[in-house]
Amino acid sequence: MYNRPLSPHITIYKPQASSLFSIWHRISGLFLTFLMVFFLISSQLLLFITNSKDILNGLIMQLEVSFVFQFIYIFNISIFFYHIINGFKHIIWDLGFFINQKFLFLFVLFTCFFIFLTILLLL
Question: Which residues make up the binding site for heme (predicted)?
């Protein structure tokens, strides 16, 4: 009928750090769930096709050397740690502690530092 946008409030307000972290927490949870299901199905298919764990171990050892596999590994580990750290923040907030801007700023700094440290340690 009318030629108006459905949700104009999205374009009016500036995104807040807490809402962005909440959205990324949900996206990372979906990604990790998809990754786990993909890993379990693919490993079962490889075991079914090869009928031998020795062939599967040789394939895994060849993959570990590749740069792409190492990048994917570091990317997945950093997403996993982000999801864990942000989950702790949600638990703390659900308990009613540290619900203020100062804690949010410190949490953002801690999360970025910890993810950066994790990537450096994995390299």
Answer: 83
Domain boundaries in the chain?
66-122
What single DSSP character describes residue 100? S
End-to-end CA distance of the chain: 56
Q: Which residue has the higher pLDDT, 29 or 122?
A: 29
* SS3 at position 7: coil
Structure tokens at 100: 């203020």
Is 25 annotated as belonging to a binding site?
no
Task: Return the structure tokens found at 8.
Answer: 């104009």
Write down the mean pLDDT value for the chain.
Answer: 82
Closest to 110 (Cα-Cα) out of 74, 92, 86, 76: 86
Q: What is the pTM of this model?
A: 0.71
Contact 39/30 with Cβ under 8 angstroms? Answer: no
Q: How far is CA 94 from CA 53, 102, 106, in A?
A: 45, 17, 18
Give the closest residue to 17 by CA, choosing from 98, 101, 115.
Answer: 101
